[in-house]
């Protein structure tokens, strides 16, 4: 019997909130993952057992957390992390990777972020709702993308209302409209030689002001978002196609393969060819 499930969400345009991958695993003693850096938010719910998380906070200090059944932990984009199962009582967990312009706000409403990655429920019943929504997504990979996105919202709603550190959600703002416009422009033109100024112009905003509201909303600069978007597309292509590194670089907006390889290595800490050979196969064991 398999001890893990792993699924990749189809590439659909959901800007406010989108799934990337999700799964379940019953880990062996001391099973570890990392050190690794994610492109998106990754949340694990611990179904049984226990383990340890090492993650870097916003000051780049490594913090150790001991986590057990009924708890959860969040990994933020760009955050260095390592986690491993307990030797005597290894954990079983379900996990979901997601992102979007509302993701950061929803997680903050649940009291979660780079400096507060541990989820603890108000009670076991409330925590079970979080677990059940993740397991629903994991167990229904053939459902329509819209159906699964609906359950991603239900998962986050359960997370917010059950968290002992929950905060409050803020109402929508005009700047969210501009961020949606910016992300849509990147999605449509990332294969071209676009710049941050091009994105700002598409939103009819001054570049400086655009950069400010983008970082406030997304937690990273427009330039870093564009790089992250292209790198994510590149890894997707290397996962699901046999296209050469040169072809991949051209398909994500880099005319020069050397420039792409340098950007990729700076982002992931590993060359594209080596990533394809090593990291993907490791990620499938998540």
What does this structure look like?
This protein is an alpha+beta fold. It folds into two domains: 159 residues, Jelly Rolls (Sandwich), CATH 2.60.120.280; 110 residues, Homeodomain-like (Arc Repressor Mutant, subunit A). 44% of the residues lie in helices and 22% in strands. The chain is built from ten helices and ten strands. It has a six-stranded antiparallel β-sheet with strand order 1-2-9-4-7-10, with helices on one face. It has a four-stranded antiparallel β-sheet with strand order 3-8-5-6, with no helix packed on it. β5 and β6 form a beta hairpin. The radius of gyration is 19 Å and the shape is globular. The C terminus is likely disordered.
Compose a concise summary of this entry:
The chain has 286 residues and is α+β, with helices and mostly antiparallel strands. Helix content is 44%, strand content 22%. The strands form two sheets. The chain has a six-stranded antiparallel sheet with strand order 1-2-9-4-7-10, with helices on one face. Strands 3-8-5-6 form a four-stranded antiparallel sheet, with no helix packed on it.
